[in-house]
Amino acid sequence: MERKEKLTLNEANATDLLEQIVKERTPVALVALDYNWGAPVSGRFDRDFYQIWAAARIDLRPKCMKLLANDDQIYSPASWSDKLTFDFVKDCKTHRLYLLCGQNLFSQFAIKLETEDGQVYYDNNGGFGVNYRINPHSGRGTTAVAGDGAIWDLKGIVPVSLLWRKHDKEQP
What we know:
Shape: globular
Strand order of the largest sheet: 5-6-2-1-10-11
CATH architecture: Sandwich
Order of helices and strands: HEEEEEEEEEEE
Radius of gyration: 16 Å
Distance between the termini: 35 Å
Strand content: over 45%
Largest sheet: 6 strands, antiparallel
Oligomer: single chain
């Protein structure tokens, strides 16, 4: 399964990243996140999207991977939902790679693994005690960048801006 958006990680990038950053015994983990969450104004030329790569340990016998998301700015248990299910991509050594793409963004999320024997595991920001968070209307952001034969893990969700591409006519 390939990336859905331009200038985001593809399956090969996500596989390489998984094998470098996800520890062998980690049950479930965020591999990479790419998103765009623009301001709600008319005349925008870009569109909102998210693309999340995640991994689950194969020996735990994953049944499904879900996104546990909160689209409310204040904490309320009723505002959390786990209706979004990741698509299986492939098995990679000790972990299974998954991808979830969509357009309706959320301010907080965690990744939920359900196993065939009923166990549930979460990755809510690598166990740092807070969920992954995206600032609403913050523009483009990512956790990893690939290009020129390299992949950079940014160690967090970082806002990014495209300044120039090789095929653009003029460089700023």
